[in-house]
Design brief:
- By secondary structure, the protein is an alpha+beta fold.
- It has a four-stranded antiparallel beta sheet. Strands 1-2 form a two-stranded antiparallel ribbon. The protein has a two-stranded antiparallel ribbon with strand order 7-10.
- Helix 1 runs antiparallel to helix 12 and helix 2 runs antiparallel to helix 11.
- The model has no long low-confidence stretch (mean pLDDT 90).
Length: 518
């Protein structure tokens, strides 16, 4: 026979189970906007049935159901989507940083504009063109001095900004290392806490969500891989094993740089920072250094007009010019070492006796000329008359040799250098004009920025698509939760009514049996 109180126990189990379901639904609703939260569900199943009691054997058909029970509260999560999201997130972090760095480089170059280096170069060549028309005019000489100073200042400023960007990226790498180590420690601590709670028979879903959220954040910083072991997550970051159980191996900037150089650190913001600092910024700094050095000392072919008188001891095309034989009988094509080399083939107009032209550019520190140290020759800064413009003298080789200060041969050659082809000393760049070389720098930067922007947008869209797929599985839908809330509420109410009905039946049985007619 069936136990008298069997149905009371069945109703109680239903009440307990649907109470847990209602509490879990409320927990989901409360965390609908919590970052990293995964929807949780109560896993219900029919409790173990039993046979009805009998003296020798059951007299009832089938088994007696004992109601419902829940074994666990589980979170809804797909590891495949987590892995896919983290891969796309690493790619997004990488391209976002690269795009941002290239945009900063564009602002440094400031081209095309009316205030960029190209405009300063145009002013420089135009000043020489004006000087060639009236080489004795001190105003024109001062303009050449000032435009040259502006050119060197502009190059210095670009170099300073590139150095500042390098320092900024290095500082950001250090900050990311600190953030990474903090997140790794969080994962290790959560590993330990989760294992402890699992040992007590609990299911720490919220702690698992926090751990996965920490891994998601790590994936934005660097490419990560996660393996589920018996003692929790094992995390590999940039090819380095960094978390096993509750043990953490902190990362360092040098370690991440070695991983980047070896190719194991291939994604995330840190990889983008190394790429930006060591490739983009370094490359443009080298190109600007090459531009400065080539303008000052790069090989360039010029034609010296017939009648030019070279300074004493000048060596051209293997010939040494001396005394009265310094006059060129015909137009002569020669290769000189940049503007500095060319100006030393002429004469200044500052003295009574012929004075060999001075280099226009020098370095601030005495080393090789770069964009960072190039400057106007201090002697020319003090006296613009020391700018070489003349290539003619009276009575060459005689004691009364005198410079023809009205001659403009040197100034004309200098103004023509705007279209001359300099050798920029790189196999990737054929000889070309200064403007062409700088234009190639700006063009290269524009193409790289455009590509980085495209890649960044693609990565953003892919990451968002995967996240939408993840949210469709793990995210909290308020409409669905409200539907479940009503469903579980009705089930709880029905179980309550079920228990009330049997309570009334038992009351009648216990208190009314044997009292016929009452």
């Amino acid at each position: 026979m069936t136990s008298t109180f069997h149905s009371i126990e069945t109703a109680k189990r239903s009440l307990n189970t649907h109470t847990a379901a209602l509490n879990t639904t409320g927990h989901n609703i409360s965390n609908a906007n919590t970052e990293g939260y995964s929807r949780q569900i109560v896993k219900m199943n029919a409790s173990l049935p039993m046979e009805a009691y009998g003296f020798l054997r059951t007299t009832a058909a089938g088994q007696m159901g004992t109601g419902v029970e829940f074994k666990s509260i589980e979170r809804v999560r797909q590891s495949f989507l987590d892995d896919q999201y983290r891969n796309e997130n690493s790619n997004l972090g990488n391209w976002n940083i690269r795009h941002d760095s290239l945009q900063k480089l564009e602002s440094i170059m400031n081209e095309p504009s009316d205030t960029g280096l190209r405009k300063v170069l145009d002013n420089f060549w135009n000043a020489w063109s004006d000087l060639s028309k009236d080489p004795e005019n001190i105003t024109n000489r001062k303009i050449v001095k000032e435009t040259t100073q502006a050119l060197t200042d502009a190059m210095n400023q670009v170099n300073t900004q590139l150095d500042a960007l390098t320092s900024d990226l290095t500082s950001n790498i250090t900050l990311k290392v600190s953030e990474t180590n903090s997140l790794l420690q969080t994962v290790a601590d959560l590993n330990s806490n989760i294992i402890k709670l699992e040992g007590l028979g609990q299911n720490p879903n919220d702690l698992r969500d926090q751990r996965d959220l920490a891994i998601d954040k790590l994936s934005k910083i660097a490419n990560v891989q996660v393996n589920q072991l018996s003692d929790g997550y094992q995390v590999t970051l940039g090819g380095q094993l960094v978390v096993t159980g509750n043990e953490v191996t902190p990362v360092t900037a040098d370690g991440l740089k070695a991983a980047y150089d070896s190719g194991t650190l291939s994604g995330g913001e840190v990889a983008g920072m190394f790429m930006s600092r060591d490739k983009y910024v370094t490359d443009y700094k080298n190109q600007m250094n090459q531009l400065a050095d080539s303008i000052a000392n790069g090989d360039v072919e010029v034609v010296l007009p017939a009648g030019s008188v070279l300074p004493e001891g000048t060596v051209l095309n293997g010939v040494t010019y001396s005394g009265a034989g310094r006059t060129l009988a015909s137009d002569t094509k020669v290769t000189v070492k940049g503007i500095n080399g060319l100006l030393q083939l002429g004469y200044t107009v500052s003295g009574a006796t012929p004075e060999k032209g001075l280099p226009l550019f020098t370095s601030k520190d005495g080393g090789p000329i770069t964009a960072g140290n190039i400057t106007l020759n201090p002697d020319i800064q003090k006296d613009p008359n020391k700018i070489s413009t003349s290539m003619r003298v009276e009575n060459p080789g005689a004691p009364n040799e005198k410079v023809i200060i009205g001659n403009n041969d040197m100034a004309l050659i200098m103004s023509g250098l705007k279209m001359a082809k300099f050798d920029f000393g790189t196999a990737l760049s054929a000889p070309g004009t200064v403007d062409d070389y700088f234009r190639s720098i700006v063009g290269q930067l524009g193409v790289q920025t455009q590509e980085a922007e495209r890649q960044s947008k693609n990565a953003q869209e892919l990451t968002e698509q995967v996240e939408l797929s993840r949210q469709s599985v793990s995210g909290v839908s308020l409409d669905e939760e409200m539907s479940d809330l009503i469903k579980f509420q009705h089930a709880y109410s029905a179980a309550s009514r079920f228990m009330t009905a049997f309570d009334e039946m038992l009351n009648k049985l216990i208190n009314g049996t044997g009292r016929v007619g009452l």
